[in-house]
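User: Hello, can you help with two protein structures?

Assistant: Certainly.
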Amino acid sequence: MAYYQQGYQQPGGYQQGYQPQQMYQQYQQPSQQYGNYGGYFQQNVFSVNAWQAFQFGSQDDLWHVFNAEMSKNPADMHRQAIQAEDLMNIMNNCQTIRNYFRIHWSRELCSIMLSMLDRSGDGFMQWNEFMELQQCLVAWFRVFQQYDSDRSGFIEANELVNVITNLYGYRLTPQATETILKRYSRVLPRGGGEACLCAFDDFVSVSVRLRAYTDAFRKRDAMLHGQETGNCTFQYDDFLRCVMCL
């Protein structure tokens, strides 16, 4: 999300040895107010090699996929980055990525994912941001599969709550949890009755938004009070900038 890393200009192009965790040392430490979600990223996400999960021979192969899509648009080439439409094309048209996740990626979801990592605020996703996104997606998909034992493409609502609060480590009230369930689950027939279920694309949406909104709020809290208090005052324009980008 661009607004918690104002002024940071991510260089484009292919860079090896990129360490995204270095940029989260301050706002993803354990917090009494916000929980231990940063620890989950440090320990489980940034160690993922997405190119291996996609069965590429090396990271170079994934770079070529990124570069091939970027090369189709002169505006992308000028910035050495891709846009939401390009990200959607990669996720849906690259056979190895499509076979891994087995879902159709909408442009809306790709816009949300791009915004989560758009630290320059220009509406583009550069190579390092793309790689970080793939790390997140592979880690989230592995979590989802742990609960989707019948490979139906859904997990139950209580499992979603367990992931958010116990695995990710967010500190949420029952009221906030209920709001999330209403927004990101659906009631479907199951086992002769009904069940409240969450699909993987909704699972990604809630994972992205929780991370981006919490980071944005947490930074403003610390800047306003000199420490984290769990409270923050927003101006209307600032509020819109936070929520409308996702």
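That covers the first. Now for the second protein you mentioned:
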Amino acid sequence: MAALLVLRAVALITVYGATSTVGSCPADISIYRTSSVTGGDDDDGAGDGLDLVKMNGLWYEQAYIDLAQVGESCQVFNNTYLGEASEDLGDGSDGVGDVDGVDGVDGVDGHVMSSTSGIDQKFHVKYGPIPYTLPLHYDTTDQTGVFQRYAQYPGGKFLKFPSVVVDAVLSDDGTEYTSLSEYLCYMIGPIEYVEIRIATRSVSVTNDELEEMEDVLRGVGIQYDNLTYVDHNGCDPWP
């Protein structure tokens, strides 16, 4: 495990050295949200927008830009929405106070403590034959779909990355999202660190489906070169 952490640290250092030195991260990353995230209110993201509960569960990463993922394969992640920092989620009887079927993450009538709000994500990959899970956390902000993301390791909270859900496609029955696209851009001095992640509920997608999701990214003004695509053939089930 320690060796894998070193590998990821080296990859991040490589990112900082290899990305463009011309700063182009927007001052407000929320400009890249579609109406599926903002709920049609592009000014402040208020109203019916992204439903974080519907982001719960297993996702398959299909395409990405992220040099920290160099050497990784079979990328999947599992989201658990923990609630808002000061929100009383009730007793779970209506399903709102439940996280993965458990009534109340602190065991007391669905009340979520502020230290356990936002989204926990377990990002599971393989380095060659070696499985590895990176615990990530997304702090919510006052803008729908905009987060502060960090790794859940000692000191991880000192390096938070602004991240935005660009687009989320709802299932036909409206119970969950079936695809997500995420964009992250962070400036460290003149150095730009960028991530793009496209994920779906299904293990595989067609080229046309991927092209449609990429068109959405470009349509909101996100500029990038080439994505790396994930092949899930031969990958083990989620651990």
